[in-house]
Structures are given as structure tokens and as C-alpha cells.
């Protein structure tokens, strides 16, 4: 496994394989890898000739007062894990390699980024612009045939899909189901922040989504499904940042559970950790880990 720290080295490492016609799979991460990331790496390994994983804690997507300094950085362990998974190339740049002095360009997607985790009243402005800018750079540098993301980040995936389509990036976006603990908690690097009691309480996020699904499939309106989710959270003393039902593709507010797949998404702070999760309720009322997009 080769580790590249510089953009030029990444391009150099991929040039020959690309000329030979190899398919390149890209797995962008911020490190602190867990089994959710591993699922993406394994799918990339299964379907692509060359697997590239990025380890980069992107400062551009953190707002004032967010956990940039505290975000877990476990590069040594991450590299050992990726070597064991037969990854070909790891891109692990320093921030000034990605954003050199004088960097003045932003890639921003409108509409999809103004709601849920992009609501400026909930997070500092520019979160998703930070995401799309760095992903656009990775797409330009690695030129992947396929990029792999997790369903837990449903809004992020929707935004990246739109960016790739609007800017004609020749990359297919593959989204894999959320990987969960036995009690339903979605795997997240930020779960490391939780103490034992907070970890127990955090399982209520998935129970809240299950309550919304059960209520929706019983024929109840959207408002009742959201209320059911909020009740599960309240039972554990969790006051959510948001619990919302939105169209799974364009993120417009859902008026009903009939006709289109509906994303039920939530964000909540449990102790020091801001956690997100979601499900997709299909028109037939069945829940699937449907591919649509960390906050």
C-alpha cells in the first residue's frame, strides 16, 4: 500500500493504472475509521481495480465552535486497517496541501444545502460548501470511476450527486447502507466522544426513526410520525436539533408518505457529540437503506 501526501504524488501513482484501463474507486474519509468505512472499502475492492482512500480532516467544513481541534485523528491505526483491507493507495495530505496560500475558490450547491444540517441557524454557514469544494478537488485529482459514500450522510450524498451531475464529473456515486451497532446506533467517528451513559442514550436516535417508520406505515400523517420520533428522544432526555421528513432526492418538505421515497432525518447532541441518522420510507411503506447521502 502506498501513502501519498502530495497531490502530484497521487496523480503520479494513478497515471499508469489509468492508462492501462484500470477502474479507480475512491473512498473519501476524514479518518478515525470504523466498520462503516470498512464496508465502503470492501465494496470498492470488490468492484474496482484500484482502491484509493483519503484520510483528511477537512477544516473547510467545520464552523466556528465546532469540533475541528478535537476531531479524532488515528492515522497509524487507520493505515494498518487499510493495509489489511488491501487498499492500493492512501491520500493523506496536510491542510496546506489541499488549501495552499492564496486558495480562493469555493464549489457550492444551492437549495439542497440550506436545510437540515445546512440550515445556517443550526450550523455555521459554509459547511456543505466545504464538503463540495474538497470532494470536487478529490474528483479532479484522483479522477475516480466510482466514489463510495455511506447512507448515514444522506444529505451529503444528495449534495454530492447534484454537484457531480451539474459539473459533469464522470464519476458514479455509490452509496452503501448505514452500518449499525446491535442496538441500532449508526457507526460514527464521533461515537468515540460518548461515555457509557451517553452511549446508552444515543441508541434512542435509531429507535426514534423506527417509531417514525412504524407510525408512517400504519397510515398516519407526516406530523404524527415526527411526533412519534420526538417522543422516543424525549424519553431519554434528548432535545433534537431537528427531526424532519423530506423528499429523499430533492429534500423538499414531505407532505405525505405516498408516492415518493421520503427521508426521515434527525440530528441531536448527546453529551459532547453531535450525531445524525436517517431512514428512507418507500412509497409502499417499507423501510430500505435507500441510496441518497455529515453532516
- The CATH H-level homologous superfamily of the largest domain: HUPs
The CATH topology of the largest domain comes to Rossmann fold
* Oligomeric state of this protein: single chain
What is the count of structural domains? 2
Radius of gyration: 19 Å
Separate helix tally: 9
Q: Considering DSSP H and I runs of 4 or more, what fraction of the residues is helical?
A: 25-40%
Most strands sheet: 6 strands, parallel
Task: Assign an overall shape.
Answer: globular
Average predicted confidence as pLDDT: 94
Give the distance, in angstroms, between the N- and C-terminal Cα atoms.
30 Å
How does this model look, in words?
The chain has 295 residues and is of the alpha/beta class. It folds into 2 domains: 2-176, 3-Layer(aba) Sandwich (Rossmann fold), CATH 3.40.50; 189-288, Pantoate--beta-alanine Ligase, Chain: A,domain 2. The protein is built from 9 helices and 10 strands. The strands form 2 sheets. A 6-stranded parallel beta sheet has the order 1-4-3-2-5-6, sandwiched between helices. Strands 7-8-9-10 form a 4-stranded antiparallel beta sheet. α2 links the parallel β2 and β3. α8 (204-217) runs antiparallel to α9. The model is unreliable at 285-295 (pLDDT under 50).
Amino acid at each position: 500500500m502506498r501513502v501519498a501526501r502530495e497531490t502530484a504524488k497521487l496523480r503520479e501513482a494513478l497515471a499508469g493504472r489509468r492508462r492501462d484501463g484500470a477502474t479507480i474507486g475512491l473512498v473519501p474519509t476524514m479518518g478515525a475509521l470504523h466498520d462503516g468505512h470498512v464496508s465502503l472499502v470492501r465494496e470498492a475492492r470488490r468492484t474496482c481495480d484500484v482502491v484509493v482512500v483519503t484520510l483528511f480532516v477537512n477544516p473547510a467544513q467545520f464552523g466556528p465552535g465546532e469540533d475541528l481541534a478535537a476531531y479524532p485523528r488515528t492515522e497509524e491505526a487507520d493505515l494498518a486497517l487499510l493495509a489489511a483491507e488491501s487498499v492500493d493507495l492512501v491520500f493523506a495530505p496536510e491542510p496546506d496541501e489541499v488549501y495552499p496560500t492564496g486558495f480562493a475558490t469555493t464549489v457550492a450547491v444551492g437549495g439542497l444545502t440550506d436545510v437540515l444540517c445546512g440550515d445556517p441557524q443550526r450550523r455555521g454557514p459554509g459547511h456543505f460548501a466545504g464538503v463540495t469544494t474538497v470532494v470536487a478537488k478529490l474528483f479532479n485529482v484522483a479522477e475516480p470511476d466510482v466514489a463510495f459514500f455511506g447512507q448515514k450522510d444522506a444529505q451529503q450524498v444528495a449534495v454530492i450527486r447534484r454537484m457531480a451531475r451539474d459539473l459533469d464529473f464522470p464519476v458514479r456515486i455509490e452509496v452503501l447502507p448505514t452500518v449499525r451497532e446491535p442496538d441500532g446506533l449508526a457507526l460514527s467517528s464521533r461515537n468515540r466522544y460518548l461515555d457509557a451513559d451517553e452511549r446508552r442514550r444515543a441508541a434512542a436516535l435509531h429507535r426514534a426513526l423506527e417509531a417514525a417508520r412504524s407510525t408512517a406505515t400504519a397510515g398516519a400523517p407526516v406530523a404524527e410520525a415526527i411526533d412519534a420520533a420526538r417522543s422516543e428522544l424525549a424519553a431519554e432526555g434528548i432535545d433534537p436539533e431537528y427531526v424532519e421528513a423530506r423528499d429523499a432526492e430533492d429534500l423538499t418538505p414531505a407532505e405525505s408518505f405516498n408516492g415518493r421515497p421520503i427521508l426521515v432525518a434527525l440530528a441531536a447532541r448527546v453529551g459532547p457529540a453531535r450525531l445524525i441518522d436517517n431512514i428512507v420510507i418507500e412509497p409502499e411503506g417499507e423501510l430500505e437503506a435507500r441510496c441518497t447521502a455529515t453532516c
